[in-house]
Structure prediction request, 502 residues.
Amino acid sequence: MKNNLINRCLIGVGIATLTLASVIVIRTLGFTAPPLANVTPESPDLDGRAIAAHLSEAIRFRTVSAQLNQHETQQEFRNFITWLAATYPEVHAAIPPQKLGTKDGQEFSLLFTWPGRNSALPPILLSAHYDVVPVIPGTEDEWQHPPYAGAVDDTHIWGRGTLDDKGAAIALMEAATGLLKQGYQPERTVYISLTSDEETGGESGTAAVVKKLKSDGVQLDWSLDEGSFLLHGFIPGVESPIASINVAEKGYLTVDLVASGQGGHSSMPPPETAVDVLARALVRLNQHPMPGGLEGLSQKLFDAAARHMPFEKRLMFANQWLFGRGIEAALEKQNSTAAMLRTTTAPTMLSASVKENVLPIEAIATVNFRLHPRDSIDDVLQHLEQVIDDERVKIEVRRGDAASRVSSDEAHGFHLVADTTRALFGPVITAPGLTIAGTDSQRYQEIADNNYRFNPMLVTREDVHGFHGTNERISIDNMVKATGFYQRLIQNANTPSQISDK
Prediction:
């Protein structure tokens, strides 16, 4: 009797196991993507060396927006604008830019208006910024080529701004020049915005552009700005590049945590100082991050990529009800993918005593949060209060900007960007994504139905180390493809079939 019961239990377990395995396999077999379109990428008839030479010249202008309070830097911006007009005379003659600015009378941002034949069609805006971040002091000797020399070798242009974002600005000018030389005129109005202070928040540049277009009653169909790239080698098991066309970006919140304590001489410290109180608060924040998970935009991106993975990896993504926590744990191990799952917490600055032998009355930590679209500023502040749970620590907001709205990945503009990407780069995976940093698009959403964030350039893990870091570079081939992309995108957005399909 006992043996029969054991046998029945074993049979039941076997049947359950077989059923579970069958469900997992069936779901995995259904979790596939159709073969990538066998598209032969276009080879734009463009002079790559000439484009590289122009970007090289642009890099030599030290347009560091963080230093715009210095007269020498202001002159660098003026010189760049003068050079731009001399280098792209066709653009400046046919669609002369309006200089814009809202701060201290400095008008360093440029808005080109390319009138369309049909004023009834909603316009579009293509944007890039030409300001750059400073070179980290003390790292100059670590650069393979001097950061502002604009060195060009057989394959790459080197220097601060090549990827972020002068490369895109020059590609836009090259694209407009090529179309104007062909006598091209768009059906819908096309705006080209080159802004001057994206790296410091856009308060003079993008803000002025938005103010100008709002005052003119302009409502854009869509805008395209920086925010992501064609990513190659970022997701294990996916061999094809992934064009992450980002439809939203994280918000920005900076707070000061101010811990109070008993001052005095360091030779007679109390059991707990202001620094101890602050350190405990920071440790608690580190141990209790904001809740997160693979959902929303991050889910869409990884679902699109996972369908092209080998069977064993597809199996996990196809059955997230079973393997979800394991997937998230794996994604958490890489900073870039972990940031897509939640609002991030980053202590960035510390200050306390004015002298080494004086106990501080206050110790201050500045903490920067990048807000996932699921979280509000109030959500983060409540989280801080609950986690720190110490009345001796005050939370003072320095700056707070909510996450952007999420644009549609089903809209006409998204498909135009995706189709144009495939035309230039061949069979690549396209998917909506989330920009984990900030861009000018945060402001453009005031005047556009949809905002997309994507630079038409292929980058690898090696390339991304140059962002705001050392040895920033871009390939000549990328500059040719980006120029061809912008040309084709403008044409695609203005062809009768595309307009009628909208």
